[in-house]
Give the backbone structure.
Amino acid sequence: LLDIQSPVVGNPKLLPQFADAAEVLRRIDRRPDVSYVVLMPNTKGFDRLEVCQKDGCGATEIILMISSSEAHNKLNFRMTHAEAMAEHAAIMARSHKLGIRVIGCAGTVYGCPVQGDLTTREVATIVKFYLDEGAQTIMLGDTTGVANPRLVRERMGELMAQFPGAEFIAHFHDTRGTGIANTLAMLELGVRYVDSSIGAIGGQPATGAAKYSAGFTGNACTEDLIAMLAEVGVATGVDLSRLLDA
């Protein structure tokens, strides 16, 4: 499936670029072979999505995220782990009732600009929470691009052993130019789903607050990833020339 991500958030004042997300959802020309994925950080955001859902222009899946680093989560979402888990559990229950799939995202999986290094146990706590609450897929976010292929193999080996039935999504940022290398390491481990963005756009949006992650942005670049996979013989079904035109 192709994924289209259209963030819907609770407070447009904090993230003004997402203020018209509901309008974006309403104006998309829908296709049956596309999964429409919405970033969902809080209850107010889900309230907005629920209105769209009732109008027939909602989402196929939502992404909920908790940083494995509690210090980062407090800065990013202004919630402790316990507060975030309570809110997300309630959102997931509402999602299940509406038939919306849930992607549970653990952020700062490979390190945190605030806390520093993290243990696999800290990451596993977030993964287990989402799986216990019924998330169909688990996203593992390298939120500020600190991962390297060796760390990816080590951490993923431990997580895959602990959660053998989980379906993982790899999400890497390209802060240090390692996004594609880390994505390839994930694919070699057998992970089937990987995130990327056209032109390597993305990252942490500017909110006017202190840039605790030094302002680094940018996700693994789709064009680079598709080109690399084509050259090593991996069929993605994506036409690179048409992608570049887009």
Summary: The first strand starts at residue 2 and ends at 5. Confidence is low (pLDDT under 50) at residues 1-10. The beta strands are 2-5, 34-39, 61-67, 101-107, 137-142, 168-172, 193-194.
